[in-house]
């Protein structure tokens, strides 16, 4: 059973990160008002390290690394984010169905699939 205090939003974006004197880009997997999960890449970090994450130019969130394993880390923010910031950065699936997303010609007709390896007939 999951004992998280806040709902998490899938984010999946690269963001700026500062860990002590080191700065770099990390991959933010998910986000909640109280923290998130990041892929730190080649940055070295340990539980208890102070960290600051840039949230897409909206704001910066300072916090602490609460777990680290296999290049990923969990961050708890010192100050909770506003729910609107979390929703703004979260993944929003398209609201239209797959058929409506299909590529169309200028008359609105669905384009046929492209068959790799086949050459169009020349007339």
TrEMBL record:
PilZ domain residues: 4-89
Under the heading InterPro entries, the entry gives: PilZ_domain
Designated name of the protein: PilZ domain-containing protein
Origin species, per record, is Novosphingobium clariflavum
